[in-house]
Amino acid sequence: MSWGTELWDQYDNLAIHTSKGIEFLDKYANFIRDRLAIETEYAAKLRRLAKNYQPKKKEEDDNEFTSHQAFRNVLKEINDLAGQREVVAESLQLQIIQGITLLSKTLREERKKCLSNGTYLQQNLSSQLSALERAKRNYEKAYRDSEKAVDNYKKADMDLNLSRAEVERYKNIMTAKIQQSDDAKNEYANQLQKTNNLQQQHYNELLPEVFNRLQELDEKRTRGIREFIIGAADVESSVAPIIARCLEGMVKAGESINEKEDSYKVIERYQSGFTPPTDIPFEDLSKQDPESSQESHYNNVQSSHLTVKGTISANRIKKRVGIFNIFGSNKQQKIIEACITLKNSLTADGQKEDFSDLPPNQRRKKLQAKIAELQQKIAQETAARDGLMKMKVVYEANSSLGNPMTVEGQLNESEHKLEKLKIDLKKYQGYLERANQIPMASNSPQANRNNLHNGHRVSRHSNGSTEDNNEDGDDQPDDGGSLSRSDSEDNVAQIQNGHNNNNNGVSLSKTHLNNSSSASPESGLGTSHTSLPGSGQGSAHDNAMGEDAYYETEMELLQPLGTCRALYPFEATSEGSIPMNEGEVLQVIEIDQGDGWTRVRRLNNTNGWDEGFVPTSYIECTLYA
């Protein structure tokens, strides 16, 4: 079935239908364009999403957790998904949009030609029909005139009053009119034949040809839409396997998360190496002398918030022997120099060069990682140096290849870098060796909360000796010694050997503190209230000093080195430490010397100044310039 046969009289409707068909094709093209824009925008937003959630540089330490690694893999798959959406958009643009645009242009041009041809045929047929109508009207008029002339002639012929000449004139008129009628009749018959022939040709050949051409164009449009819809689906199907692999990658990333492994890594990261505090022994007051009993009661009540400076007024403070010898006539200048030296010894991330501000386990891991990094750099630099040496030998053997002197400078620079790396490696190996020699609990104030021998409290004197307040009054040696004293001796040895971990003069103050009084949070700062005059404790020389000699050693409050803010609450559980609340601001009077503790001070409206040690990791320090 064809439009030319079945729709021979539907020229106008076919013109409208083909116009709507092309408009529908353009509508589908706009749909694909909008979808293409959505695909492009979706891909761009996916990429932006993956970029925004990429791990920041400060979060690199968390990348060791399997959950973080899985999330990074998910972000990679999201990037791949975005790439596939971009492929879909590009394919739609090249295969569908361009095809539709070309087809629409072709259909419009062909339809215009067909309609122009059809219009021409319609005009020819109309012209012929008009000529036939005129011929018919002429014939009808001529025929009526001839009939009238015949009637006039008959009347004249029967009229006896008319002359022979008059009758002859009527006869001539009749003959002329009959001749005109015959001519008009012949013309009408002629035009009728032409019209019928043209009309038959028009409806059977010419116009059906135009309609069939329009039918072909409309079928071509319909076929094109079918191909474009299938093509769009094929574009989507072509990326479906890759998208499926991306989804499989996300599933694998999720399955790779291991909660036990993450828990173990948390332990590895935050394990300090300190041992938990031992049980607090029972103090039998009946087996102690009154002074010792009074001291023990005072310790139990005040040890959580009093130190040397907390036991007396804020204006009358006993001078610590051998501590902070940098405070002299030019003490302010020396403080500034010590702070500048300390700042220069810090790494880029604010940690000390030897990581002595970290707990033992974390310090050892940092040092091991640093050593591995230096060894890798040494291997790379050694390979580069060997390559330069081989190049130099080749140049010396064949000067046409290059000048050996051009390699000399690079070789010297490589040797210099290699030597510097070896020095750093040796330095960090020394740090690691000393870190391995430090006992696991040497830096924990809780670990040595109470030094006891056979269930009795041991008080420490400023010279580092011990006295066992047992019932018999016999002096017993302190076999265990002070944990912080061993750390101090290690620091002293490092200073004497020129291997101060912090490479600054501030550590000397802590060294003098430890040597003179075993000053650590565990030992009660060496000058705790147990060694005040009249307390019954301390050496004989200290007791002999008396009240006058005691106040001769008084001095002003130590100048603060800066301020600090408590990041977390801290409960003082050992002598020498001081409690603090989250957000509390304290004065820093002694910086951390590698044992993980910082000495601070705060104003107490009841007892003057409270002073003691707090964990360095619990505070955020701001040193004065």
Low-confidence stretches: 293-329, 440-555
Radius of gyration: 55 Å
Spatial arrangement of strands, main beta sheet: 9-8-7-6-10
pLDDT averaged residue by residue = 75
Main sheet characteristics: 5 strands, antiparallel
Helix content: 55-70%
- Taken as a percent bin, the fraction of beta residues is 5-15%
Number of continuous helical runs: 12
Give the structural class. Answer: alpha+beta
Number of separate strands: 10
Q: Shape from CA axes?
A: elongated
The separation of the N and C termini measures 99 Å
- The topology string of helices and strands comes to HHHHHHEHHHEEEHHHEEEEEE
Task: Characterise this structure.
- This protein has helices spanning 3-6, 11-52, 66-158, 164-255, 259-270, 290-302, 331-344, 360-397, 405-437, 483-496, 506-517, 540-552; strands at residues 317-318, 452-453, 456-460, 466-468, 554-555, 562-566, 585-590, 597-604, 608-615, 619-623.
- Helices cover 61% and strands 7% of the residues.
- The radius of gyration is 55 Å and the shape is elongated.
- Helix 2 runs antiparallel to helix 3, helix 2 packs parallel to helix 4 and helix 3 runs antiparallel to helix 4.
- The chain has a five-stranded antiparallel sheet with strand order 9-8-7-6-10, with no helix packed on it.
- It is built from twelve helices and ten strands.
- The chain is an alpha+beta fold and 625 residues long.
- Residues 293-329 and 440-555 have low confidence and may be disordered.
- This is Cdc42-interacting protein 4 homolog isoform X1.
- One of its GO terms (cellular component) is plasma membrane.
